[in-house]
Design a protein that fits this description.
The protein has 338 residues and is mainly alpha-helical. The protein is built from nine helices and four strands, in the order αβααααββααβαα. A two-stranded antiparallel sheet has the order 1-4. A two-stranded antiparallel sheet has the order 2-3.
């Protein structure tokens, strides 16, 4: 076993190598990538990710309330941003299900893609900043503001992006669905150079978040941080896939969306591991309390026996002293004799 290499490092290395090889073989050599229309599956992905990110945000905020850790505030804010963006994506998919018959194309524009991309970059940046602050021992100031400002800013940004989306540089080519003889022919989008660069920068930030989570795990030895590091590797590759094949359109499911599901699965395992660790700590604390109560009861018994022993010893000593005093020298006995 190499010094400094633990189970998490091997798992992260295996995940990185596996994702790199699978991406190279499928997309590079075979030219194959998953991209198909399924409003139902897209809705499942967005809904699942929304619920999971909300749970993780609540878990991180509860950890901050217990331990007052700086990184926990930024983690809660990061996942709350993710939950806000995923909830927005869910509403977009719900609005696009069963479109009006006769419509020749669906052109959601760039706004939805800008919202999801901005949210992921912001969430990844919060994880990195929070980790750096934790390592520098920076105390969390205004935690409620730190928690609330990023998602509120995203909500305001959603409105602005829908207003000014036409003035922003496109992140992808248009996406359309055209009826053809009872079926649908889809023209799937490609990333523009600017869009690929923006998406890839989000992937790099997620990898930075994974490195931070790994370092936190090595210092604090919490199970959830290990799962978070692994999950962020899948989130990073999801961004890299989106850089090539953007998929933030109603009903369009891509390889990046399936990697998001992998991220959700890892986060669920992390939540379950955190719950088991908390339950184990509570059981240990209850056991310690029972042992402490037993020790206190035994100590109380010893003290009571010592007190009775002292009283008995003092009474016997007093009687023996009285027996040793001459009869005439004891006024009480002399008066009683008279």
């Amino acid at each position: 076993r190499l010094r400094g290499i633990d189970g998490l490092d091997r798992t992260l290395t295996g995940a990185l190598v596996g994702l790199l090889l699978s991406s190279f073989v499928t997309s590079g050599l075979l030219g194959f990538h998953i991209q198909f229309l399924s409003s139902g599956l897209d809705l499942v992905v967005d809904t699942t990710t929304t619920v999971v990110t909300l749970f993780v945000a609540a878990l991180a905020w509860a950890r901050f309330g217990e331990a007052r850790e700086t990184i926990a505030v930024f983690q809660a804010a990061s996942f709350l941003v993710g939950a806000t963006a995923n909830a927005f994506s869910t509403l977009v998919v719900l609005d696009a299900i069963d479109p009006i018959p006769g419509v020749a194309s669906i052109a959601p524009g760039q706004a939805a893609l800008y919202v999801s991309t901005t949210a992921r970059i912001l969430a990844a940046a919060l994880l990195v900043v929070g980790g750096l602050g934790a390592f520098r021992r920076v105390a969390a100031r205004l935690p409620l503001a730190t928690l609330a400002m990023p998602p509120l800013s995203l909500v305001g940004g959603i409105a602005l992006m829908h207003i000014f989306a036409s003035d922003l540089p496109p992140l992808s080519s248009p996406f359309s669905v055209t009826p053809a003889g009872g079926s649908e022919l889809a023209t799937l989008p490609d990333s523009t150079p600017f869009g690929a660069l923006v998406q890839a920068s989000g992937g790099v930030l997620f990898l930075g978040g994974a490195i931070v989570a790994r370092r936190v795990h090595r210092r604090e030895r919490r199970r959830f941080d290990a799962y978070l590091a692994l999950g962020l590797v899948f989130a990073a590759f999801s961004q890299f896939y989106l850089a090539l094949y953007p998929g933030t359109y109603p009903g369009l499911v891509t390889s990046g969306d399936l990697l998001r599901l992998s991220f959700d699965f890892v986060m669920l395992l992390g939540i379950e591991a955190e719950a088991r660790a908390t339950l184990l700590n509570l059981q240990r604390a209850n056991g310690d309390l029972k042992r402490l109560a037993g020790v206190e009861a035994a100590q109380a018994g010893l003290e009571e026996r010592a007190r009775l022993s002292r009283e008995l010893h003092d009474g016997v000593a007093q009687d023996l002293w009285l027996l040793g005093v001459p009869f005439s020298a004891h006024p009480a006995l002399e008066n009683r004799h008279c």
